[in-house]
Structures are given as structure tokens and as C-alpha cells.
Design a protein that fits this description.
GO molecular function: ATP binding; proton-transporting ATP synthase activity, rotational mechanism
Oligomer: single chain
Largest sheet: 5 strands, mixed
Pfam families: ATP-synt
Subcellular location: Cell membrane; Membrane
Strand content: 5-15%
Organism: Candidatus Gottesmanbacteria bacterium GW2011_GWA1_44_24b
Number of strands: 5
Radius of gyration: 28 Å
InterPro entries: ATP_synth_F1_ATPase_gsu, ATP_synth_F1_gsu
Shape: elongated
CATH architecture: 3-Layer(aba) Sandwich
CATH superfamily: ATP synthase, F1 complex, gamma subunit
Length: 285
């Protein structure tokens, strides 16, 4: 027979856990709403910037812009910006992301890495990857966008890297987030993929297409990084909210099971005591 005192203590412990996970779920839900709004609005803005770059790219000579062409001196190394989370308790979000990262880049020592998030940084350190910068300690990851863009562009223009990739969890809905990879430098791939579907529009550009393009491209790089960070943050809060909701539901289910065991144990104890009293009385008579 299970100890009544032990069961009572376990029920109390599980109730405390349920209260904590419920509070964490509510906090994550509040953060998720704000992050989701930013991610969705930022995604529309990023698409507009992308369309503008594609449109201008069709009208300009990409051979004269270093960010649009593959480097003449290839090194075989790439710069990978890995966006993970600083905290856990968000289900399989980081596990899926890091598994996707290792499948995409099986030879970790072949590239250089910049981490945004402690989970990714810890993995790179354990595997001996070349971690050249870590922005996990930043108050908000969005603040790191100019530094990340400058690091990516300068490394590419100095022929240190053949390309720059982003790896992050893209936000689709509160229930759906998937790890993705995107090449942000060079832009040749993006142009080739959209060339067949691009719509040519005739409009006046001042002062010149090349000058506008030169100013727009660095902003485009920053925007791609910022959009990935907003997507990753929305994914984190959504995954944590769902994970805490599942934990709360599991705790409540466990409370019901323990309460049933507790009631059975009490009933067995009462039945045993009554039986003992009857036996004692019959013995005395």
C-alpha cells in the first residue's frame, strides 16, 4: 500500500509545478503576441526590400558590384550566422535547429561561425568549431544587426569567405516553426531564382540606378539578418508557450492519477482499521 503521506507530498509538488508552468505559459504567450506581430510585419517589409533589390538588379550590371558576384579568389570557407536561443524550456526547437545545422554543415571545421544565442554557441564550442564572434550576451538580438551585417560584408569583400549563410528557425504559426538556411552573400543565387518570375516595370529612378542600388544593398543585408532574428524570436516564444502548456496539462493529468491513488490508499487504510476493530471486538467477546 502506497504511503498516504508520500502521496500527499507528491500531489503538492506536482501542483506547484503546474502553477509554475502555467505562469511561464502566460508570460511566453504575452511575449509571443508581440514577437509574432513584429515578425509578420517585418516579413512583409523584408519581401518589399527583396523585390526592390531584384528589380534594380535586373536593370543594373551586376558584374560591377562585388556583393552580386562570386569572389574571384575562392577559399572554400563560408561564414555561418547561427541563430538559436539563450534559454531552454522551448520543446524541441533548439534540438531540431542544431540537428538541421549539423546535417547542412557536417564538416564543422570547414567554416567560420557567428552565434546569436547560447544554445548554438555551446554546440560550436563542444564540437571545436571556429567561433569568431558570439552575440549571445546582447540585451536584444536586434541591436546586433549592424555589427553582424558589417562582419558579413567585410569578410566577404576581403575574400575571406566564399559566401555568408543564415541558419535560424522560421516562424510560420504558433504551432509551426522549421529550421531553414538562407544564403545572403553573394546575391547571385537570389537573382537566378527570381529571374524567371520577375516582372519588369518601367519607372524613373533618380539619381541613377547604380547609386540607388549601392545604397540599397547594405540595407538589404541588414534587413535579411533582422528579419531572421525576428522570426527566430517569435519561434522561441511560440515553442515555449506550447511546451509549457503541454507541461501544465501533463502535470494536471498526473495530479488526477496521484489523487486517485491517494483516495484508494485512504480507503484501504480505513477498511483495514475497521476490519482490525471488528476482529479485536470479536476476540474480546
Amino acid at each position: 500500500m502506497a504511503s498516504i503521506r508520500l502521496l500527499r507530498g507528491r500531489i503538492k509538488s506536482v501542483k506547484n509545478i503546474a502553477q509554475i508552468t502555467k505562469a511561464m505559459e502566460m508570460v511566453a504567450a504575452s511575449k509571443m503576441k508581440k514577437a509574432q506581430a513584429q515578425a509578420l510585419s517585418g516579413k512583409l517589409y523584408a519581401q518589399k526590400i527583396f523585390d526592390m533589390v531584384m528589380e534594380l538588379g535586373e536593370k543594373s550590371d551586376s558584374r560591377h558590384h562585388p556583393l552580386l558576384t562570386k569572389p574571384a579568389q575562392t577559399t572554400g570557407r563560408r561564414l555561418i550566422l547561427l541563430l538559436s536561443t539563450n534559454k531552454g524550456l522551448c520543446g524541441s526547437l533548439n534540438t531540431n535547429l542544431l540537428r538541421f545545422f549539423l546535417e547542412t554543415y557536417p564538416n564543422v571545421n570547414a567554416h567560420d561561425y557567428v552565434s546569436i544565442g547560447k544554445k548554438g554557441a555551446n554546440l560550436l564550442v563542444r564540437m571545436g568549431g571556429s567561433l569568431i564572434a558570439d552575440f549571445s550576451q546582447s540585451n536584444t538580438f536586434v541591436e546586433t544587426v549592424p555589427a553582424l551585417a558589417d562582419l558579413a560584408v567585410s569578410g566577404y569583400l576581403s575574400y575571406k569567405y566564399d559566401g555568408v549563410d543564415l541558419v535560424w528557425n522560421e516562424f510560420f504559426s504558433a504551432l509551426k516553426q522549421h529550421p531553414v538556411k538562407k544564403t545572403i552573400l553573394p546575391l547571385t543565387m537570389a537573382f537566378e531564382q527570381t529571374k524567371s518570375t520577375a516582372q519588369n516595370h518601367e519607372f524613373l529612378i533618380e539619381p541613377t540606378i547604380s547609386e540607388v542600388f549601392d545604397r540599397l544593398l547594405p540595407h538589404y543585408i541588414e534587413n535579411q539578418i533582422r528579419d531572421a532574428i525576428l522570426q527566430a524570436e517569435a519561434s522561441e516564444h511560440s515553442a515555449r508557450m506550447i511546451a509549457m502548456r503541454n507541461a501544465t496539462d501533463n502535470a494536471r493529468s498526473r495530479i488526477d492519477d496521484l489523487t486517485l491513488m491517494y483516495n484508494k490508499a485512504r480507503q484501504e487504510k480505513i477498511t483495514y482499521e475497521i476490519s482490525d476493530m471488528i476482529t479485536a471486538r470479536m476476540t474480546m467477546s
